[in-house]
Amino acid sequence: MSTGGGYVPPPSVGHEIGVMFGFLGAMALSMGLYAVVWNMGQKRSAAKELERRKLLTEKGIGTHLDAPQMSTSA
User: Fold this and answer.
1) Which of 6, 22, 48, 57 has the fewest Cβ atoms within 10 Å of its own Cβ atom?
2) What does 6-48 look like in DSSP terms, one character per residue?
3) Which residues contact 63 (CB under 8 A, 6 or more apart)?
4) pLDDT > 80? residue 65
């Protein structure tokens, strides 16, 4: 005799849905935090790059850095 018959629903559908939405909420929160940290890193990197360019320009080395880049692709 076979005992693995029909569909057996989970004991607590509400708990399963709660876990699912909890996971989605945690992922949204982690994405938001990552975006904030990424943005802070980008601002810090841009400030360092600006300072580097200023120092190079003062030395007379980096005057070409502000010129538009020409494409070499044919």
Assistant:
1) 6
2) S----S-HHHHHHHHHHHHHHHHHHHHHHHHHHHHHHHHHHHH
3) 57
4) no
Residue pLDDT, tens place only, 10-53: 778 888 899 999 999 999 999 999 999 999 999 999 999 999 99
Question: Which among 4, 57, 55, 58 has a CA at the least distance from the CA of 67?
Answer: 57
Q: Could you tell me which residues come within 8 angstroms of residue 53 by beta carbon, excluding any fewer than 6 positions away?
A: 62, 65, 66
Q: Say how many C-beta atoms besides its own lie within 10 A of residue 33's C-beta.
A: 10
- The model scores a pTM over 0.70: no
CA-based R_g, the chain, Å:
28
Amino acid found at 53? R
The three-state secondary structure class of 58 is helix
